[in-house]
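Lab meeting prep.
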Amino acid sequence: MADPLSLCLFVPVEALAHTLLALLQGDRFLLQQVRSPGELMEYTDRHAENIDCLVAINHIAIQPLFNQLYERGILLPVIIIDDMDDPGGGQDIAEPVAPTYFYHPSEVRLSASKVEAIASVIEQAIHQFLKLAPYLYPGRKDDNHDTIGYQRGQARFPRNAAAPSRAKAQGKTRLPRGVLQAKSR
């Protein structure tokens, strides 16, 4: 059985938070709900390397939070849930946002009315984020790196690596757990 995905939920709307918690309960996900912007910043500062996906509601506090995360070098797969009061109803299920985005080009938007699809959208957000990796590391092949791979459950994760490898990995931009760089031989 695969390791559960670690999710951070920043959904201050109680009704939506309860719905998400009910939809995501089980062995597949480890959930951490944060209720305030300060709590989100504190949690991501301490646990960014363990967060597989951030789920946040689109409201007034989200843009400054994303700016702070970006400035701190914390980039995570993210799902932005458009508010239930949004007259446009958000995008149709989940689509990468382009060309305008809040956090990074691979963020995924989800209408609150389609939140029941959240489990599959989490996988999509991680996949979109991994496609962003070459954008984050232009010229990686010139640096003797030929690929960036997703290696869930492997001992080669930076957090599961021996101390010298882990220290080397901690100096890099924080990517979701399981994203590592493979050197060409």
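Slide two material, second protein:
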Amino acid sequence: MALDEVVEEVISSAKNEAKRITEEGKKEAKKILSKAEKEAKEYEERFRKETEKMLEALEKKTMASAELEATKIIMEARKTIMEDFVKSLLETLSKLDKKKKEKLLGSLAEMVRNEMKVHTIYCNKNEENIIKQLFKNVKIKHIDCAGGFIAENKEGDLSMDLTYETLVNRIKLDLLKILDSGLKSK
């Protein structure tokens, strides 16, 4: 074999080996690239899902916070309305003219008479004369109230508080129950 043939065979062999190595390199590069693309897609999908979860959690938290703030605003408005209502109603009741006071106190006196034998009446000084007309032979004591009275039996173990403040607070509680049931149904 001549030197030229040996050189040519070595070159040919080197070319074939280089071609084989190049092909294997390309195959390996494709595998690596394919694996990298797959991992990138998996990472992208995990990132997308985590981002969606975070956004959903943030949305829920924001909604809960907004609902809480709305409830606070409603409760504060309700409180203000109730305070204004109580104040206004007490003012109206305390400023009733004599005939209306007599009629109202007469209705309250009738309620008391149906429930107990009255011995002592606690009322404000301004309504004492009307109370004396409604209740004969009872002790009258003065208290600080907008109007109405507290009736008590002889033993002092039974009493009925029919002061305007107590009556208005009962109305207030009834209204709050109605408002509460309206809020819960929404």
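Talking points for slide two:
DSSP finds four helices and four strands in the chain.
The first helix runs from residue 3 to 94.
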